[in-house]
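## Example pair
The file below holds two records. Each record gives the amino-acid sequence first, followed by its structure token line.
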Amino acid sequence: MNFSPSFLGLLDNVLSDYLWAKAVLLTSTTVASAGLAIQVPMAAVVDTLTGNSPGLLDYLGATAVMVGFAGINIPSDTFSKSGEARIEMENEIAQLNSKDLTVPRNQDSAAIL
């Protein structure tokens, strides 16, 4: 099969834009755009496997992109509270759940029922 270059270019651009838009809907614009930046480290790996090894600064840049992408995807509350604060909060919630939260009845309220 021999496709025309204009057809292949149209297919390539439309497909990549469609997939990027789907990624934005499933995640966020920041994560989707950072995901596009992962193409650079992937290209460095493929170049290494094919025998066209990039330079040291290329690997350093690829590492920075991967660390940035991982940093974006870490939930924001992961580092906000220490383990002790979480345990303390869980204990407080457990104490609240174990308390009897019923309204005490007196004789007048029992007569109404």
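Second record, same layout:
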Amino acid sequence: MTTRFQIIFCLCHWLSSQYGSQEKSAAGVRRYGTKSNYSQKDLDEALDKIKTCKLPQMEAANLFKIPRSTLKYKLKGQHNKLVGKPIALLESEEELFISHIVTLADLRTPVGMNI
């Protein structure tokens, strides 16, 4: 019987071969989203305090440990897109793909990159 982990591993392997794999970035190139040490809750609270004039931007940045530029961009409504690649499959397509792999596994048909 195929485990869910094996199915997800196979799916991830197939997707990475179809859409390219994550490569290490070159030296000196920033990997966005990896240096954030604050939560969305902290960001929302900081923005709320700034909008209600309870804290200036600099104090909120220091208190919540959020870069001042991030607060400034969020207040202006800039840079609101999600970081990372867009999803490759819809949820329904992913479920269909998983059920297909499970069916093949139940029939003991090998699932590989060339099938």
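Notes on the second record: The chain has a mean pLDDT of 79. The CA atoms of residues 21 and 102 lie 24 Å apart.
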